[in-house]
Each structure stands twice: as structure tokens, then as C-alpha cells.
């Protein structure tokens, strides 16, 4: 029984043996420890992952121990087995004398770490270690989005200092930025309409978290209804203290210098107030 168990470890597998009652013993034994009856001789592959049933922490390892840093001895029940085997559990690099980490607990999931060179002994499993189910990598991802046909056409207009929308053939609303369809009626759009770069603030929010696009903190982001448009456009609003921005305020696009323009909405730094009177709430209430 033990010879078969160790031969399987050498090949990177773990097996148990089935008893007459149907239980799987790991490590395998010739007799059922509960009844004393002979086992069936049917070997069953188990694991490789398992569950810690109990453990004992070793804060100051002795020279005979498998690690020279704190670790745990644990009884581990491999998946598919009904009994547990004793082995070392590696919880990572810890200072001598350290207390058990909070992750060490009965019920934790673990996996064996096999040695690169195996000889058919229990030492072929170097140790068990926590099963990783989630990681928090310190990574960053940079990407560039490419607009489709409608958005590409809109950005082409912005690169020329023009704001172009599409008129819906059903509701006749002008959609800007153009999408290639009307979100209200769900029909394709193709008729281009050039709009002025002036509009009205419908709703807004004051932000206190820094943003590289904003001139200062706090800054205002808001929805602007361009003159002649049927949908609002989200943009920055500046050129006025944040606490003076209001619904119905008239604004105009603040364009960057012509030499800085490209196919990007960054050509418009933000929208800033004009000297025109505010638009009454009744005229913009349907665009909130």
C-alpha cells in the first residue's frame, strides 16, 4: 500500500485506497482503522488540493525542521479523501518568532508543492501552501480606444473646430456627439448638422478629487445642451468658481490653441460662462 502511494508521489500524483465501507484512506492502509477489515485494494486519485483540518504553529524552527523560518504542521484532507495526512504548511517568509498569520485557520484551502526531482518518498511533496484564489497585482494597463464610423466623423469635425451632430429622421432631434443611430427611436442616422459651440448647463456635479483634465479642485463636470441639440453632452465647466455654477447657465466652449488640436475632445478644455442671461428651468427640464 505505502509502496504504491510513494510511487504515485514520485509521478506527481496522490492516491488513497477505498475501504469496504466506501471511505478513502490517505495515506493508504491495509486495514480500515475503524473496523479492522481489509481494504478493497481499489486505489483512488485524490487532491491535489485539500483542506486543513487542524494545525500547530512553529514560530522558532529547529535545525531538524523542513524550514528555517516559521511554518505550521497541519493535518490536510485531500479532496476526495476521508482522512488527513500530516505535512508542513508554508505560509511565506516570516521573521523568527512571528505569530501565526491570520490566513492560517482550520478550513483553509491548500495545495502541495512538489519537488522538481522526486525519488518516491513523502519528501517528494516539499510542503503544502495556501491555494491562491485571488491576486492583487501592482499592474497598470494603457490602451487607446478607436472610435467607430460615426464617432470618427465627429472627432474629425472637432479637429477642424466644428461640432457635428446627426439629425434623427423620426424625432428630428440632433444627436451630438453623433452615434450613427437615434437612442430614442433606434433608427440609423446620417444627416449631418453643424452646431454652434454654445449651450446651456442642465445638470452638474462638484468634484473634490483631482483630475488631470481639470484646472483646479474643486472642479465641475456637467451636462451641456448645445444650442440646437436634442441630447446633452458631458464636459468640464470652468472659468467660474464651482459654487457659482448653476442650472440654466449659458456657456461657450474654450478651445485650446489651434496648433494643439488633434482628433480628440481634448481640443476643448472646458465650457465657460458667457454674459447671456440664464435659460429658464422650464426650457431645459426635459434634458435633466
Give a structural overview.
InterPro entries: ChsH2_C (IPR002878), NA-bd_OB-fold (IPR012340), Thioester_dehydratase-like (IPR052513). This is OB-fold domain-containing protein. Residues 44-114, 192-256 form the ChsH2 C-terminal OB-fold domain. The protein contains 3 helices and 16 strands. The protein is mainly beta. It has a 5-stranded antiparallel beta sheet with strand order 6-5-4-7-8, with no helix packed on it. It has a 5-stranded antiparallel beta sheet with strand order 14-13-12-15-16, with no helix packed on it. A 3-stranded antiparallel beta sheet has the order 2-1-3, covered by helices on one side. The longest helix is centred in the middle third of the chain and has 10 residues, at 149-158. It is elongated and about 95 Å long. The N and C termini lie far apart (76 Å).
* Beta strands, count: 16
Sheet with the most strands: spatial strand order: 6-5-4-7-8
Strand content: 25-35%
Low-confidence stretches: none
**N- to C-terminal separation?**
76 Å
State mean pLDDT (0 to 100 scale): 92
* Structural class assignment: mainly beta
CA radius of gyration is 35 Å
Distinct helical segment count: 3
One letter per element, helices H and strands E, the order comes to HEEEEEEEEHEEEEEEEEH
Helicity range of the residues?
A: under 10%
Characterize the overall form.
elongated
Report the sheet with the most strands, covering strand number, pairing sense and barrel closure.
5 strands, antiparallel
Amino acid at each position: 500500500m505505502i509502496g504504491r502511494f510513494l510511487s504515485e508521489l514520485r509521478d506527481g500524483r496522490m492516491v488513497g485506497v477505498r475501504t469496504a465501507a466506501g471511505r478513502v484512506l490517505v495515506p493508504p492502509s491495509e486495514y480500515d482503522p475503524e473496523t479492522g477489515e481489509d481494504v478493497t485494494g481499489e486505489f483512488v486519485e485524490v487532491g491535489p488540493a485539500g483542506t486543513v483540518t487542524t494545525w500547530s504553529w512553529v514560530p522558532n524552527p529547529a535545525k531538524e525542521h523542513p524550514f528555517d523560518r516559521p511554518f505550521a504542521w497541519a493535518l490536510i484532507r485531500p479532496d476526495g479523501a476521508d482522512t488527513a495526512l500530516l505535512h508542513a504548511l508554508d505560509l511565506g517568509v516570516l521573521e523568527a518568532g512571528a505569530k501565526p498569520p491570520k490566513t492560517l485557520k482550520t478550513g483553509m484551502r491548500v495545495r502541495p508543492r512538489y519537488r522538481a526531482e522526486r525519488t518516491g518518498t513523502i519528501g517528494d511533496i516539499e510542503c503544502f501552501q495556501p491555494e491562491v484564489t485571488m491576486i492583487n497585482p501592482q499592474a497598470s494597463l494603457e490602451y487607446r480606444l478607436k472610435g467607430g464610423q460615426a464617432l470618427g466623423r465627429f472627432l474629425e469635425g472637432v479637429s477642424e473646430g466644428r461640432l457635428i451632430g446627426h439629425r434623427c429622421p423620426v424625432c428630428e432631434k440632433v444627436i451630438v456627439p453623433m452615434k450613427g443611430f437615434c437612442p430614442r427611436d433606434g433608427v440609423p442616422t446620417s444627416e449631418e448638422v453643424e452646431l454652434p459651440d454654445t449651450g446651456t448647463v442642465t445638470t452638474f456635479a462638484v468634484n473634490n478629487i483631482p483630475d488631470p483634465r481639470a484646472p483646479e479642485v474643486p472642479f465641475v463636470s456637467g451636462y451641456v445642451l448645445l444650442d440646437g441639440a436634442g441630447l446633452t453632452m458631458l464636459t468640464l465647466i470652468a472659468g467660474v468658481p464651482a459654487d457659482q455654477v448653476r442650472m440654466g447657465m449659458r456657456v461657450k466652449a474654450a478651445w485650446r490653441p489651434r496648433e494643439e488640436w488633434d482628433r480628440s475632445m481634448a481640443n476643448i478644455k472646458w465650457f465657460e460662462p458667457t454674459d447671456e442671461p440664464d435659460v429658464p428651468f422650464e426650457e431645459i427640464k426635459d434634458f435633466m
